[in-house]
Design a protein that fits this description.
The chain is mainly beta. The chain has one helix and ten strands, in the order βαβββββββββ. The longest helix has 4 residues. It is globular, with a radius of gyration of 15 Å. It starts with about 30 loop residues before the first strand and ends in a 5-residue tail after the last strand.
């Protein structure tokens, strides 16, 4: 009997069997895909993102065209600045829901920073933005 599971597939990702790659949105981060994109046919995506030691953020303002974006910090710290919300230092255990289209930028981070990002859909556009007034 074939399971339908609401158009999703069972997926498991182990840290010792996965690798980080530098082919992501930001050159100062490395990304480990958690397999959620393939299991949900692109409806959702999830990554572990970590800082590349010694690399710094460019601090450019941008926004994303997506429906959902959540970030949970697992190690170190990162400072984000959000349109109308100011700067927020997220550290191990911090979680932020970034509303669709909010202008934001990554200001700085620790060399050991690592976070989990959950998004929907998995494939989305990033727009360069001017600094909010």
């Amino acid at each position: 009997m074939t399971q339908k599971w609401n158009q999703q597939a069972f997926s498991v990702s182990h840290a010792d069997a996965s690798r980080f790659v530098g082919e992501g949105l930001r050159a100062f981060f490395e990304y480990r895909d958690l397999g959620i994109d393939g299991a949900t046919k692109g409806k959702f995506g999830a990554h572990v993102i970590r800082a590349v030691p010694g690399e710094k953020s460019l601090g450019t303002w941008h926004s994303h065209e997506l429906d959902f974006q959540m970030v949970y910090v697992t190690k170190g710290w990162v400072v984000f600045e959000y349109e109308g919300q100011g700067e927020h230092m997220l550290r191990k255990g911090s979680c932020v829901l970034q509303p669709p289209g909010i202008k934001h930028r990554e200001v700085r981070h620790s060399d050991d920073m690592e976070l989990i990002e959950v998004i929907s859909p998995a494939d989305f556009s990033t727009l360069d933005e001017s600094e909010p007034k």
